[in-house]
Each structure stands twice: as C-alpha cells, then as structure tokens.
Fold each of these.
Amino acid sequence: MNPYLVFILAIMVGTFILNIIVEKLNLRHFRETLPDEFTDCYDPEKYQQSQRYLRENTRFELVQSSVHTPIVIVFMLAGGFNCVDLAARSFGCGPVLSGLIFTGMLAVGMQVLDLPFSIYDTFVIESRYGFNKTTVKTFIVDLFKGWGVTILVGAPIIAGVFWFFEQTGSLAWLYAWGAVTVVQIVLMFVAPVVIMPIFNTFEPLEDGELKQAIESYAHARNFKLKGVYTMDGSRRSTKSNAFFTGFGKFRRIVLFDTLIEKHSVDELVAILAHEMGHFKKRHIHKFVLISIISTGLMLYILSLFITSPDLFQAFGMEHISVYAGIVFFGFLYSPISMVISTIVNSLSRRFEYEADRYAADTYGKPDALISGLKTLSVDNLSNLTPHPLKVWLEYSHPPVLDRIRALRNAAGSSAQG
Ligand SMILES: [Zn+2]
C-alpha cells in the first residue's frame, strides 16, 4: 500500500480520535460547584447555563468532525481529487489558472460542507443562549464579503505561489517565501483600514470620561495612541472583546461596543492597559516573526514533496501538478502544523500573563482587571475549569482562574515589598 496514503489516513483518524478524547476529558473536568472566586458575579442558574452551553458546543463540534472526517476520507479514496482536477483541466487554461480553478472548486466544496454547521451554530446554539444578533441578511452578506476578500486577496497570493513553483525550480520555496512575507506585512498594515471595515463599522471613541481616562493613562505611559475606536460587534453577537491592530500609522486599539456597555471605566482602562502591554512587550512583533519563520519552514518542506509521484498516486491522480501537490501537502503537513500551533499557544498564554502583569503594574488597579476578566467570562459563558490537556493543545489564553490567581499573587508579593 502507498506509504503516503497510510500516513495520511493514520493522521486523519488519529486527529479525530485525539479530538474525541480531549473533548470527553474536558466535559468530565467541569466542576458542578461554582468556584469561590465567582460566587459574587455568577448566580447558580447562570452557571448551570454555562455548563449547558459547554455541553452543547462540545457535542456540536464532535458531530461536525464525525461528519467531516469520513467525507474527506471517502472523497480522497474514491478519487474525488482526480475528478476535480480533470474538471479544472477541461477549461484548457494554463497551470496557474487551472490551479486556481482546482483550489476554488475544493474551497466551494468545503464551504458547502460547512454551511449547515455554521447556520446551526449561529442561529440555533448561539441564539438559544442569547448571544446571536446576526440577522439572516448579515449572515448572507458576510458570506459574500468573505468570498470577495478571498478572491481579491487570497487568490493572487495562491496564484503567486503556484507561479513560483512552476517557474523557478529548486529555489522556488525561497522566492515564494519572500513574496508571501511581503504580502503578509503589507496586509498587516492595511487590513485594519481596508479589510476590517468591510465587515464592521469603526468609529473613533467619543469624548467623555472613558476617553479621558484612556488618554491620561496612555500619556502617563508615554504611549503614542494613534486612535481608540469602537467597533459594532453588537451587529453579530452580544459577546465582547478588545484588541490591538495594525502597525505604525495604522496602529489602533479597538473596543467592541458590547464591551463598553458592560464594563466600568476602570475595568475598560485596565483591559486596554493589558492590550498596550502586548504592544510594549513586543508580543505582536514576536508572533509576526514566528509566523514568517514557520511559513518559510512549511514552503521548504513543501518543495521536498511537491512532485513526489507516490503522493499523487495516494490521491489517485492521473496528472502531476504543482497546485494539487500543494493541496496534498496540506494533509502531510498537518501534524507539523499541530505541533507549531501548540507551541504558539503556549507562548501566547505566557504573553497573556505578561500583559496582565503589565496592566496591573502600570495602571495600578489589579482588582479592576480581575473584575473585568470575571465579567468577560460570565458574559461569554466561558468554561471556568477546562481540562489541562485542552488548554495545552488549544487555548491561546490561560483559563481565567489561573490569570486571576497570578494577578493576586503578584499584587500580594508587591504589597509585601
Ligand atoms: Zn491579551
């Protein structure tokens, strides 16, 4: 039997089983009794609700992967990729355009497969718990906007990579890496002003107590603010968030309107101080660097496998092509990308502690950050007691109780001198 086929099937089945184990452990790890830290802001009924929300989401994810995995495996074994390739070739275009048709058809297929799940998630689960604000119209418009951005931004990048691997021989990965990196950096600068406004409305924060408090904190920290914006997150969901985006002239802090609604000025400044902490500690730069390095690694490994006849045979292909090689490589690469994402997550969790510490040290109100974090967790029905394995594999943020503990410890030790 073809070694690539054995390997890819083992990876797919293995990932599926690992996923089930992690989710089961996570469910079993849920504590029936409300943690002491939350007795002042969670009533027992709402805590029960958060448990139901967790169960329902877990079941949903398991059903989704139980449908998804077998379909992909059957499609692969039945020669589906070859059929799509023959259809793409029937247009008689060159290799780059055929590649775009091939990947485009696969992407549409994935979207169709995914659509019932995302409809159910948004309009059934999220609605049941009072989170959903997305109208059917917004949902459909988002879908088209998403495709518009994919075609305008994604397609040229993919076409570029195809072109480099078609044209430039053994150093293709290096050229492709350079090109992808340039595009990635340009996008980081322009996405907040060009792409994000396609989906949401950003408005400068209006004058008032909050703006004054933010400006005086930023001024005291010698932080040059390029703008504090509010975003109409309430258009899609009642869940709230804050984030930092863009670089240089386009650098901005964004607060969801839903966040402003539910938090005191002190909490909001503390949350913002946390976001500034990410910036001051150069966390964003470090992630960009990691992403550039891992892209290079991926493209290099890709160059080793891209035209291996055995790989094409595993997928039942009649023709060898750069574009199909890249798609198939995605299957081979998934264990490596899982390892990378686990490393990135663990780094990200460390950065969260650092940013919390920064906020507490500079704003001087750890309690404001703690109560802000608690309100966020309650409003978003976050799992307060996730299983450590789930955290290790998937969490980009530490569980909220760990963050609160770290903040209290730091406050305690600095009070003692
Ligand atoms: Zn953070």
Amino acid sequence: MSSEAILKKLREAVLNYDPDAAAAAAKEVIEKKEDPLEAIEKALIPAIKEVGDKFERMEVFLLELMLAADAMRSSMALLLPLIPKDSKGTKSNIVIGTVQGDVHEIGKNVVANMLMADGFNVTDLGVDVKTSLFMAEAKKSDTYIIGASSLMSSTMASQKDLLDFITASGERKRFKVMIGGGITSREWAEEIGADGYGGDALEAIKLANSFVKSG
Ligand code: B12
C-alpha cells in the first residue's frame, strides 16, 4: 500500500469517527515505517480540523466530535512516541499546559513532543491547568520558559490571567511566556503582554529557541 493510501486511511478514520480504524491505520504507518510526524500533520490534524468546522456549522453533534477526538487519541498515542527525541534534552527546561477551563490537548501534545524532539526537557502539566501552577512548576523545574495553550474564546482569558498572575508576583522579568492554540493570535499575545505566539509546532520551537538564545 502506498504512503498516500495509508494517510488516506488515517484521515478517513477520523472523518468517520472511528477510533479502532484510526489505531489500525496508525499501526500500518508504523509497520510500513512511514514518517509519524507527516502522518500527524498531513492526515490527522487536517481531519480533526475538518470535523471541527462541521461541528461549527452544526452538521455534526458533540458525540461525533468526541468520537473523532477519540480517533485522534488512539492514533496519536501510537505515533507521538515515535517522533525521534533528542535524548540529551539539554537546551532548556520548559513547562507547558492547556489553561484553566480548557481540556483541548491535541495541539499542546504535538507541540510538547516536537519540543522534546528539538532537545528541550519538557514538563507537560496536562489540561485545565490552574493558573498559579504554571509558575509554581516552572520554578520547581528551574525554568523560565512557559507555554500556555487555549482553544476557546472563553478560555483565552485564562492566558491573560496567567500573564497578570506572573506580573502581580513581581517576577515577570524572570519568565518567557509563549501562547498558542486554536483561535489565539499574535495580536492577542501582544495585547496580554506574552513574549510570543506560535501558530503551529514549528513556530513554537522557533520561539522557544529564541528564548534560549536571548537568555
Ligand atoms: C478535538 C476537539 C475537541 C475534543 C478535545 C479532545 C482533546 N483531548 O483534546 C473534545 C470533544 C473533548 C472537545 C470539547 C469541547 N469543544 Co472542542 N474542538 C475540538 C476541535 C475539533 C479540534 C481541536 C484540535 O485538536 N485541533 C488540532 C490541533 C493540532 O490544533 P491546535 O490545538 O490549534 O494546535 C496547534 C496550534 O494552535 C499550535 N499550538 C497549540 N497549543 C500551543 C501552545 C503553545 C505554547 C504554542 C506556541 C503553540 C500551540 O500548535 C499546534 C500544532 O500545530 C476544535 C475545532 C478546531 N478547528 O480546532 C473544537 C473547538 C476548539 N471546540 C469547541 C468547543 C465549543 C468545545 C466544547 C465547549 C463543546 C461542548 N459543547 O461541550 C467542549 C469544551 C470542553 C472544555 N471545557 O475544554 C470550539 C471552540 C469555539 C470557540 N471559539 O470558543 C471549537 C473551535 C469547535 C467549533 N468550531 O465550534 N473539543
């Protein structure tokens, strides 16, 4: 079976809300030694975005959105660990999480894994992360880089809360905060005083590296 045919299977599994088919297609990606990152970026992400667009147009229900998300989970659980990691992890520590009130994790997980692949030592705080925890965990793991993901208009405010919290602590200068996810934007990052915005995992990596270089 060609690479295109395998990617098509993966894409269709998400579009058909079928977690088992997604896991089976991911296994094929692995067996045929296809690039896991390409499978995520070219098949899985566009497919889940398509389902999201249908949900927004009210062409599908929440149940279908949840099944499509399960299909993402079952396939990404197999593919993400295969992205080659820079085992040294020497560039810097970094903490990342999805902000308070928000349980979307797919994009944040891609970013976290890509940062690891690029040599960062990543502490993933998970989803619905309490605002104060980002800074507490950054201090615990002795890092100054914080990444905060938000996918909803209602939870973008938690990104602002994070920046306000750090500023109020009097330690704003000590941290570099990057934000991203769904509908967030460069303009939003500027408005809330974040140090950077990443529209995708590659931009997240560039940003994190620029923080390391600028100290
Ligand atoms: C999958 C999904 C779900 C799944 C999440 C499963 C999971 N474990 O993650 C489930 C079914 C649980 C879900 C639930 C809900 N969802 Co939802 N969901 C989506 C969907 C379809 C895809 C999100 C996704 O994974 N995208 C793919 C990833 C790869 O993209 P990404 O997250 O943006 O990440 C990339 C970049 O943004 C960037 N990035 C991400 N994070 C970070 C962080 C940093 C630091 C940086 C630098 C970069 C970066 O890099 C990533 C890789 O390229 C979107 C639609 C869409 N188009 O996004 C709706 C969407 C986000 N959901 C939405 C809604 C409304 C909900 C619910 C409220 C539905 C409901 N009625 O209950 C709940 C919310 C629950 C909660 N409290 O959080 C709305 C939000 C609307 C809005 N503007 O506020 C959307 C936009 C759908 C829609 N069009 O209406 N959802």
Amino acid sequence: MNIAVIGIGRIGLPLAAKLAATGHTVFGCDISAERVEQVNRGENPIPDEAGLTDLLRDAVRTGNLRATTSTAGAVADCDTVLFTVAVDVDATGRADLNSLFAAAADVARGLKPGALCVFDTTLPVGTTRRELAPRLEGGGLRLGRDFSVAFSPERLLMGRVIEDLVKYPKIVGGVDARGGDRAASFFREALGVEVLQLSSAEAAELSKLSEGVYRDLNIALANELARVADVFEVDISEVIRAANSQPYCHLHVPGTGVGGHCIPVYPRFLIQGEGPSQLAALGRSVNDAMPGYVATRVEELLGGLAGKRVVIFGLTFRPDVAVTHHTNAVDLLREFRARGAVVHGHDALLSDEGVRELGFDPAPEPLQGYDVAVVHASHRAYRALDWRTVASLVVDARNALDREAIEAVGARYMGVGRPVSPD
Ligand SMILES: NC(=O)c1ccc[n+]([C@@H]2O[C@H](COP(=O)([O-])OP(=O)(O)OC[C@H]3O[C@@H](n4cnc5c(N)ncnc54)[C@H](O)[C@@H]3O)[C@@H](O)[C@H]2O)c1
C-alpha cells in the first residue's frame, strides 16, 4: 500500500516509520526542507522518541520511507493520506487551522481518485466535515464519489509514540458514507491495531476532546483540593492516595499547571464555537492560576522574594522530553520575577540557547547557593543533585520529588498542597 503522511513531526514521523516498517511504501511530506533532508539521510530528528532511531534508519535504508516537500506529487501515488500537521491555539485562544488548511490545499492538488484521507490531528468538533473535506474537493474530486474522509485522533504520549500507536484502540469516525469503514479497515490492516469505529467524524472529534478536557479538569480539581489542603496543613498526596483507593475515584496529581501540545490546548476547542463548555473554561483558569499561587506561597514563606536567588530546573513541559510547548516554566519565571526574585533557568535537555529562548538567564555552574530551587520538570538527570548545596528550599512544582531524600540532606521541601518542612 502507498501511504502519505502529511507533517512528519513528533507524531507524523514515528507513524510514518512504523507504517514503513510493516512493509508499506510511505511518503513523509513536510514543508520543512531541513526535516525532509534529515529524514532522507536516515537521521532521527527526535532522539528522545523511544525506538525511533532504529526504526527510521531501517525504513529509509529499505526505501520504504521517503520524505519530500512535494506533497501534491507524493499523494498522486497514494491510496491513503494521513494528516498529522499540528493545530495550536492563536493569541485569542481559538484553534489556528491555517497550517492544516494549507496542507489540505496541497493534497487536493494531487489527490488520487479513490483515495482515503484521514485527519489524525486533534480538531474542534465539526472541523473535518465543514472545513477540511470541502478543501480536499479543491482539486476537482468529489467527496463520497471520488474519495473518502475520516477523522481518527492520535492517542499517544510523546516519548513513547511507537509503543502507544498500537497500544490503545484507534478511534475512527467517517465523514462520507464509506469513510469510517475504510479508515477502520486501513488501521486494522496497516497497524494491526484494535479499532473503535464511531458513527461519525464529529463523535470521534468529541471523543478526543473529551479525553483531554477530562484530564485538564481532573488536574484542576486536584489543584483546588491542594489549595484546601494548604489551608488545613494536610498533605494532598496522602489525601489523594486514600481517595483513589476506592475504584470510582481517579484524582490526578496537583502541580503548577499543564503544558505541552495537547492538554492545555484541547479544552480551548470546547470553549470556542457551538456548545461552549463552561467547565472547560473554569478548569483552564484554575490551572493557569497555579504558577502565581505557588510563587505567592514561597513569597509568604520567605517573607518576600525581592532580591532572592531562584533557580528553576526542568524547563520542558514534561520530564525527560525535550519539548517546551506551552511549558509552565515560563509562567513560573514570570511570577517569580514579578515578585522581585532574580531567576535563573536550567534544563539538562536544552542548550543555553534553548534556555534563553524561553526568556531565562541560564544558571551558571556550579549550581549552588540559591535561596529557592523550583523543580518544574524532574528530569532523571536531576536525581544526582545535592539539594543541600543547591538551595535551602526546594519547591516541588509537580509533586514528583522524594521529599524524605531532600529533607534527609538538610534542605527544606515545599510541594503543591503539601506542608513545608519545618525550618
Ligand atoms: N505531540 C503529542 O504528544 C500529540 C499527542 C497526541 C496527538 N497529537 C496531535 O498531533 C498533532 C501534531 O503534533 P506534533 O507534535 O507531531 O506536531 P509537530 O509540530 O511536531 O509536527 C507538525 C509537522 O507538520 C509540518 N507542517 C506544518 N505545515 C505543514 C504543511 N502545510 N504541509 C506539510 N507539513 C506541514 C511541520 O513542519 C511539522 O514538521 C497535534 O496537533 C495533535 O493534534 C499530538
């Protein structure tokens, strides 16, 4: 089978390599000439993606995977076209679909009669049918008669995309009468994955947004409970462990917010347009307030932050993944600076240049003598730090650190919704 993957980024490239590894001929299409050249050399541009280096090298070596900037030319030979171009929110919080529209226009110019087009990128409900399918007709083919369209969200975690591609059921929903059936057959055959076929693209779109908003609201609830725990000086970790011992309670972990491409973005798709969700908006505002809340707690504990030396560790949005998209580390920087602190940033996965791009002054070596160390993304590399020499107060922004170990070396510990160690 000839398959085109449009957008060979964090999701599209592992998907393309996986399909190529199962023997299909795959064209990876991207507007980035640099990305295309790198892939065609068999070099992995996403080294923190588990298993991708070998898979990509083999896929390119066997000739099963070729990357190109010529999308229209590539799709002319393809029976199936998968879209994995990213959609983010713009400055007003609305979905910015322009990259996906441009990709759909490119595909329309080359689309082969009989092709199946599947949108894997998470979208506001109704976008596949109303906005994207009509754009695919731009080359003269008619939806339903000449080609089919379906929506099928990716349900993956960065860093383990290859594993997750076949781990969870692939949800599909069609736009035209045959779109759903064709997409279901494609994913069963091409990936050997279990498929959950829904009755429409809209149902599939809403299912993906439901997963995202569930997690965002759950974290918002955990954050509110953490703030109550602070009032009563109880430890929210203990509380959540107890509550979750009953099978109907699945409270997540509180922290200074939610970052990345997905969880902070998808609730906004439910806030805009028809059927706006009040809860989605509320959850966003609760989570967005957490960096300020944590900075205020530190300020109160220290009797002010003016002139205090603060270092923020782990600037990526998640531990051990070098992605800074919507990272809350920049919100922490803003909040600590607003209170007069002198803030440095450190990330074991980023260059000094990468640290600067986020607005931080890179922390000079040795990492010692700070008043406060805030651990945002707790990369494995930080496990070896001697907290006692780094800072007298360690703020665990994601409740991910070993409190006892920090206290054992004589540093104070402060988590989110967890009592501060005595002075
Ligand atoms: N990253 C995740 O963890 C994750 C998880 C689940 C689902 N998703 C979904 O996957 C989508 C893609 O995410 P990603 O992390 O792979 O994004 P990414 O930014 O890493 O990759 C997108 C790629 O698309 C390319 N591109 C942009 N415009 C194009 C065009 N007109 N034609 C061809 N290529 C174009 C970019 O150059 C880039 O390489 C997200 O929007 C999201 O809906 C992401």
